[in-house]
Amino acid sequence: MATKIGMMDAAYFVGRSEILAWINSTLQLNLSKVEEACSGAVHCQLLDAVHPGMVPMHKVNFDAKSEYEMIQNYKVLQDVFNKLKITKHIEVSKLVKGRPLDNLEFMQWLKRYCDSVNGGLVSHSYNPIERREGSKGGKEVGKKGPPAQTSAKGTAAAPKAQSHHGRRHESSSSVNSNSSSTLNVKAARPPPPAPAYEEQITELKLSVDSLEKERDYYFAKLRDVELFCQSPGLEGLPVIAAIQQILYAADNDGSAVAEARAMMSLNCQEENEEAGSLSPIPEVLSSEEKMVNPDSQKRKSIRNLDVEAAGINNLSPRQRFPDATDVHCSGSPLMTY
């Protein structure tokens, strides 16, 4: 489900224009910015479109202006999430501020979820205008046009009033009337629109918000490393000292990493020297063993003699003297008759 999508999912790469087109076509609205939906009422009706009858639209306030009124809409949205067993966390405190990036990310997730329900298809019998009529401010929200159109209508009404005013003073001279009409036309012209500048400003705001989030993320990671290095029992370790050397370095020229490596190599050399100083001990032991060896050899020889004597006693007389004939033949005086 879309409730467990990651930040690198394709849903978070959908552009603002596509999001706005989806909202306006689904709910028949005229939103020009994603952050105009920060009140939470649009989110409620988008869920009502994919889950008809699940959202109590009579509790939704499309005319919410204060944060308190917006929070009431998000409470309705959270209740619907609980009914549908959606585990998505709603960052209400950020959404009600109207920040473009936060509202864009949440709307991207909501579009991904709506697309996962019935393939993103809304029932043909669903009428968004009728569903909004039971909500506070719902009747007027669909009739409101974009701000640019409203300003254009206001500026178009100005030259009409000025033209009527000019007809009442037809007795003035032609030169004055021509000059005054020229001035009126110039004054009635609206300032040139600058949609490109507005788009650039919005993109810059999104970029700033993204950089702030990235900065906070990496700062939190560095803070976790710092707290870990300050744990009891780890402060004296050479590795911890090298990490702190990098963390607290004031220069960004890479010298901190080189110094940390030098500290680690020096520590390895000291450990090798200590290991070398302890190595003659086996030689001393071997010399001491050599000094003890003569006594052990004597004991071994005595044991061998005892074993041989015991073996001779167990033999018969014939076995003791197997070569008696040899003695007789040799002319021994013991064998004379």
UniProtKB/TrEMBL annotation:
Compartments, record wording: Cytoplasm, Cytoskeleton, Phragmoplast; Cytoplasm, Cytoskeleton, Spindle
Pfam families from the UniProt entry: CH, EB1
Residue ranges annotated for the Calponin-homology (CH) domain, each copy included: 13-115
This protein's GO CC annotations: microtubule; phragmoplast; spindle
Every EB1 C-terminal domain range: 186-256
GO biological process assignments: cell division; thigmotropism
InterPro entries to which the protein is assigned, alphabetical: CH_dom, CH_dom_sf, EB1_C, EB1_C_sf, MAPRE
Biased composition (Low complexity): 172-181
Main location: cytoplasm
Keyword terms of this UniProt record: Cell cycle, Cell division, Cytoplasm, Cytoskeleton, Microtubule, Mitosis
Keyword Zinc-finger belongs to the record: no
Extent of Basic and acidic residues compositional bias: 129-143
A GO term for molecular function: microtubule binding
Region span, Disordered: 125-197
Similarity comment: family membership: Belongs to the MAPRE family.
Alphabetical list of PANTHER family matching this protein: MICROTUBULE-ASSOCIATED PROTEIN RP/EB FAMILY MEMBER (PTHR10623)
Protein name, as recorded: Microtubule-associated protein RP/EB family member 1C
Record organism: Linum tenue
Taxon lineage: Eukaryota, Viridiplantae, Streptophyta, Embryophyta, Tracheophyta
